[in-house]
């Protein structure tokens, strides 16, 4: 009985043009590696199908480019949670007759039925993946149809989510199709690309088409797009990307994570330049709505939680913060005058897309705060606020987290009718962000990293706005260094977690002008149990064994207080021999539930 190999995210690419396809595809896969890095593979047509695939990170796989000739190719970088990370399970997957190759991002939910159906027709399966049914379905339909019709018929059989790139031996074209998984088209000079994300081809072209749900595209010498639901050929606008390859490269930095941390002076400035008019319009929507929900996952959820404190203190508004994956539990409460604010870096997270769709079905309005232009969430929204952080490649959210905070803080100020004040407050931070991300500040934080690198646990506490910061800080540390880290509200510590404190346990205590007294009280409770206290805030205290001074920025505190921990998490990862850009078991955008 085959078992399901759950593929959460992957990167795919397809190319047709005059260049050597394998080279284009391989380079593209390298930029997509953040989407998955346990195995990779390439197929080119010359016009016979040529395939190379293996387990490992892309730069560890020895692709023999001589054996991958031709100007048409597809490629895949994979990330699986369980099931075999084996050569057989790597994409591309090939049909029984060896003529059709498919790369797939997503999951085919009815693959077992399809497999049984195909087995009854004599097809043999060589892998444990859900994807292998697709090339075989196409082979079956090609007995009586041409390639395009066979693909269309096969797609009709699929349930689940997919971005696919497909080639057929002897035909100089790539067919690609998407449903609930991202796929963009690059329009070059006599060449075309399809990929999960823009960096895969930005070095060749900045002209991009964002495919819609159920779009199918054929690329060869020309480009044709069909919408399978509408059952007709469609036109989609071509957009120009306003960032370049340099921004998607590491530059002088050893890792994307550090580059993106250091970039925050710029990304915060860019997020500040955001659409004043739109922010104002959204603030009216918030004031008009009977109920407002803020939803997100992971770091985006923490940004929502942080924002709820700001809406409360500035605009005297209570916004309900809900994990996108839990939102269905509130479905019955959603009404036509509800407003859902969906926060997502990628705009492709399956949990958030599903939550938004269900809110829309109930007639609610949707506002999205997104970084990736043209992503699925951008099309599901009544209003859109772009984060403008530029591409974030490292799996961990750093600059995009602070950009989310910038947009949400501006929105809270705007809802209180104090937009200009909010903008000025964040502008004041910029010099400070420059300082805290500088090499000097990083060297200072390294002393702390050295001290606590062998710890088993790290606890983090904060009150008010510093509570979501403690949660996000804990997430950063555990995601990348694998040290167990947990964030608490300062007042909650004595209700359980204090039992874990032993001599030398590192405890990070976030303070602010507002919470200093109580936080110092909590710090002394910890100190009395032998904890090693790390203070982060505007003022030092005798209780602190290590202190990182962070300016007092009131409602904007959350933006500057997280940065030292991003740096700490990065350094802990390095000191513990972990790869900061490729944390184990994690993926940047999780496109299935
Ligand atoms: C993944 C990433 C997290 C991210 C979360 C939400 O789990 O590893 O870093 O915060 O998804 O992603 P989104 O793109 O919706 O903000």
What does this structure look like?
By secondary structure, the protein is of the alpha/beta class. The chain has three domains: 11-247, Glutamine Phosphoribosylpyrophosphate, subunit 1, domain 1, CATH 3.60.20.10; 258-436, Rossmann fold (3-Layer(aba) Sandwich); 438-578, 3-Layer(aba) Sandwich (Rossmann fold). It contains 16 helices and 25 strands. The strands form four sheets. Strands 3-2-4-1-10-9-11-15 form an eight-stranded antiparallel β-sheet, covered by helices on one side. The chain has a seven-stranded antiparallel β-sheet with strand order 5-6-7-8-12-13-14. Strands 17-16-18-19-20 form a five-stranded parallel β-sheet, sandwiched between helices. Helix 2 packs across helix 3 (133-142), helix 7 (276-288) crosses helix 11 and helix 8 (298-315) runs parallel beside helix 11. It is globular, with a radius of gyration of 25 Å. It starts with 6 loop residues before the first strand and ends in an 18-residue tail after the last helix. Residues 297-300, 344-346, 349, 352, 395-397, 586, 588-590 line the site of 6-O-phosphono-alpha-D-glucopyranose.
Identify the notable features of this structure and list them briefly:
binds 6-O-phosphono-alpha-D-glucopyranose; 593 residues; 3 domains; Rossmann fold; 16 helices; alpha/beta; single chain; 25 strands; seven-stranded antiparallel beta sheet; eight-stranded antiparallel beta sheet; disordered N terminus; Glutamine Phosphoribosylpyrophosphate, subunit 1, domain 1
């Amino acid at each position: 009985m085959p078992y399901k190999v759950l593929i959460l995210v992957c990167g795919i690419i397809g190319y047709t043009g005059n260049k050597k396809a394998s080279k284009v595809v391989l380079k593209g896969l390298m930029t997509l590696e953040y989407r998955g890095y346990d195995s990779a593979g390439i197929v080119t047509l010359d016009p016979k199908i040529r395939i190379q695939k293996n387990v490992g990170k892309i730069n560890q796989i020895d692709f023999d480019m001589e054996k991958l000739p031709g100007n048409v190719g597809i490629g895949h970088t994979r990330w699986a949670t369980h099931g075999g990370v084996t050569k057989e399970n790597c994409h591309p997957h090939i049909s029984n007759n060896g003529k059709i190759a498919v790369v797939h991002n997503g999951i085919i939910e009815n693959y077992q039925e399809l497999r049984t159906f195909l087995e009854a027709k004599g097809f043999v399966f060589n892998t444990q993946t859900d994807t292998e049914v697709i090339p075989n379905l196409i082979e079956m339909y090609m007995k009586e149809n041409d390639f395009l019709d066979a693909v269309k018929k096969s797609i009709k059989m699929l349930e689940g989510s997919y971005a696919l790139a497909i080639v057929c031996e002897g035909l100089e074209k790539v067919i690609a199709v998407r449903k609930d998984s991202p796929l963009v088209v690059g329009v070059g000079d006599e060449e075309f690309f399809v990929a999960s994300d823009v960096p895969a081809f930005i070095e060749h072209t900045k002209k991009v088409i964002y495919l819609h749900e159920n779009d199918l595209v054929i690329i060869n010498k020309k480009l044709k797009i069909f919408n399978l639901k509408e059952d007709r050929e469609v036109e989609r606008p071509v957009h120009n990307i306003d960032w370049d390859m340099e921004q998607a490269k590491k530059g002088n930095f050893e890792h994307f994570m550090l580059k993106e941390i250091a970039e925050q002076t710029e990304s915060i400035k860019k997020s500040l330049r955001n659409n004043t008019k739109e922010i104002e319009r959204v603030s009216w929507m918030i004031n008009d709505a009977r109920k407002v929900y803020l939803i997100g996952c992971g770091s985006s959820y923490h940004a929502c939680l942080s924002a709820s404190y700001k809406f409360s203190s500035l605009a005297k508004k209570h916004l309900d913060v809900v994990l996108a994956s839990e939102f269905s539990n509130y479905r019955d409460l959603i009404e036509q005058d509800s407003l859902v604010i969906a926060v997502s870096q990628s705009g492709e997270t399956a949990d958030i897309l599903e939550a938004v769709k269900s809110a829309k079905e109930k007639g609610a309005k949707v506002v999205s705060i997104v970084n990736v232009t043209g992503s699925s969430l951008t099309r599901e929204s009544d209003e859109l606020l772009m984060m403008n952080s530029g591409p974030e490649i490292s799996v961990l959210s750093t600059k995009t987290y602070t950009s989310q905070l910038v947009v949400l803080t501006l929105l809270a100020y705007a809802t209180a009718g104090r937009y200009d004040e909010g903008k000025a407050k964040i502008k004041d931070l910029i010099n400070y962000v420059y300082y805290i991300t500088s090499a000097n500040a990083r060297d200072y934080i390294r002393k702390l990293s050295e001290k606590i690198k062998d710890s088993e646990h790290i606890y983090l506490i904060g009150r008010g706005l510093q509570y979501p910061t403690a949660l996000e800080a804990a997430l950063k540390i555990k995601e990348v260094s694998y040290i167990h880290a947990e964030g608490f509200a300062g007042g909650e510590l004595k209700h359980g977690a204090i039992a874990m404190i032993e001599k030398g346990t590192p405890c990070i205590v976030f303070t602010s002008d507002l919470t200093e007294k109580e936080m110092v009280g909590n710090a002394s409770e910890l100190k009395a149990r032998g904890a090693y206290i790390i203070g982060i805030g505007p003022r030092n205290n005798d209780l602190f064994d290590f202190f990182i001074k962070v300016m007092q920025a009131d409602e904007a505190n959350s933006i500057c207080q997280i940065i030292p921990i991003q740096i700490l998490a990065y350094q802990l990862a390095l000191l513990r021999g972990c790869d900061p850009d490729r944390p184990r078991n994690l993926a940047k955008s999780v496109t299935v539930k």
